[in-house]
Amino acid sequence: MTFKDLAKLTTKLENPNITKHFERLKNKPFWIWNREEHIKEDIKTKGECCFNHIIGLPKKDNVIEKPLFDYEELIYDILQQNKHVWIKKATGLGVTEFFLRYMAWLCLRNDQYQNSQMCIVTGPNIEIAIKLIKRMKALFENKLNIIFSNKETVLELNSCRIEAYPSNHLDSYRALDNPKFILLDEADFFRKGEQEDVRHVSERYIAKSNPYIVMVSTPNNPDGLFEKIEKEPDEICLYKRIKLDYTYGLDKIFSIDEIEKAKKSPSFEREYNLKYLGLIGNVFHEKDIQKAIELGKTYDPDDLSNKDFASSSLGLDCGFGSSAFGIVITRYSSEKEKVQVLYAEEFERPDYNEMLKKVGNLIFNYNPTKIYVDGANPAFVKSLKIQLGERAETKDYERFVEYSKKYRRPIDEYMRVIPVSFNKEHKNMLSHCKLMLEKEYVEINPRFDKLVTSLRTAVEKGEGDLDKEATSYDDLFDGYRLALKYYQIKSLK
Q1: Phi/psi at 289 (nearest 5 deg)?
Q2: Closest Cα partner for 448 from 489, 483, 485?
Q3: Residue 263 half-sphere exposure, CB side, CA atoms within 13 Å?
Q4: Cα separation of 136 and 108, whole Å?
Q5: What is the DSSP string of 59-105?
Q6: pLDDT digits (tens, 9 = 90+) for 212-241
């Protein structure tokens, strides 16, 4: 006898009525979507009309029973025609609950899924995996009084093994012999390095066992797994895509008053309105960001004619290959004593020569006083210096460093294109950005939404270290840090 066989036998011995209870669920519909037909069947079967009424209806806040709604019928109908489904949804709609119930129903409606597996992949936290399996087991506890003895991440239903895996431990998930249903829950919150890996492993099973593959998530960071799939052309996208914002749940799951309260949160657009904005960070306070945006409505970033703007700066975070290229241009208004953002953009998978040309055009148009460049890309620093007619040899830079030390003057005075070492200066630059925003020295026009998102999602780990994985548009944010390096608080009084 195998260990799995022993586990099944133990479950049956602990609850001798388990088979009898599961027999009640065989050949039952998941839900009867026509209300009149549902009522008739409910009366006819004395409450055993469908799977969900037999095990008990979903509950909001674990108290108020709710029927299945029209948007869940939409999901159900799509599943009858499509085995690969992508759902971007508002929080609180009960979509994960729907799929836990749907998977259990597939196992128990007949014997089709015997000797197969179902998988739930969660974020990189074993507690989340345990919680979902616990929720699935609880479906059968209240009304059917069935208690399961499987381990915390496993549930056996009618000889189908349902197991949850955290996204950072996929060894067992890679070696399944007959998976029939794969649920990637809150998949947009998997870590960057895990998102493509999980997708690759899941889709690899298509040729092997042709499983359902369902991705469900509230949106997270821009350019993450979900946005990439959303942008795939219809003709090559594997998934049927569904978007369910908060309006689908109005007067069903959500009341108008609940939504009005939720709108006061800076996370509303992401949590309820399907915007890729990332998680709220811990570097900048929302009130400081909002103040910078309000101030930013008072100037025109395209107006470069005002002579009041005597100085400006350009920050370049030079990323190539898999990294993005962040560019931020700012100017100082002596009249308002504010730093204003004129340009903020991030470029994915940039070409070296194209970016050199792009930066050259920006320098010609904006004529920045100083240009701060990530020193980790010395080739680009040298190319830019040559393009601007500035000494570019290493010995020249070393000479400027000596001058700076000898005369106790900032090295900025000797160069226009200034390489900056993030390894040495990242902590000071982060705290400087934070102080300038808190002191209301920065104005950000609302058009620069990527920059605003990067500020909102900026996460500090440790002391002064930016969490690049958690921060949206982190390369743009680095360009912003570099651009602000030009301005000293004492000069803005």
Answers
A1: -65, -45
A2: 483
A3: 9
A4: 13
A5: EETTTEE----HHHHHHHHHHHH-SEEEEEE-TTS-HHHHHHHHHHH
A6: 999 999 999 988 999 999 999 999 999 999
User: Above pLDDT 70, what percent of the chain?
Assistant: 90
Instruction: Tell me the one-letter amino acid at 75.
Output: I
Nearest Cα to Cα of residue 87 among 188, 14, 202: 188
Q: Counting every residue, how long is the chain?
A: 493
Confidence class for position 125, pLDDT limits 50, 70, 90 = confident
pLDDT above 90: residue 409 = no
> Do 333 and 442 touch, CB atoms closer than 8 A?
no
Q: Give the pLDDT mean for 139-166.
A: 91
Find residue 442's DSSP bridge partners: 339
pLDDT higher than threshold 80 for residue 92: yes
Domains and CATH numbers, the chain: 3-271 (3.40.50.300), 286-492 (3.30.420.280)
Please report where in the chains the tokens 């980790």 appear, as a residue.
Answer: 376
- Looking at the DSSP bridge assignments, the partners of residue 65 are 59
Of the candidates 102, 92, 2, the one whose C-alpha atom is nearest the C-alpha of residue 52 is 102
DSSP 390: -
Contact 282, 462 (CB under 8 A): no
Residues in contact with 293: Cβ distance below 8 Å, sequence separation at least 6, in sequence order: 444, 446, 452
- Provide the residue type at 479 as one letter: G
The dihedral built from the CA positions of residue 256, 262, 266 and 272, taken in this order, carries a sign that is negative
DSSP H stretches of helix in 15-50: 18-23, 35-45
Q: Which of 206-220, 253-267, 289-303, 405-419 has the lowest mean pLDDT?
A: 405-419
Determine the Cα–Cα distance for residues 321 and 348; give it in Å rounded to an integer.
9
**CA pair distance 283, 296, nearest whole angstrom:** 20
* Residue from 339, 360, 354, 475 nearest 417 by CA: 360
Find the DSSP H helices in 115-236. Answer: 126-138, 192-204, 206-209, 225-231
Measured CA to CA, the distance from residue 284 to residue 145 in angstroms comes to: 50
Task: List CB contacts of 441: < 8 A, sequence separation 6 or more.
Answer: 337, 338, 339, 487, 489, 492
With contact defined as beta carbons under 8 Å apart, do 366 and 312 qualify?
Answer: yes
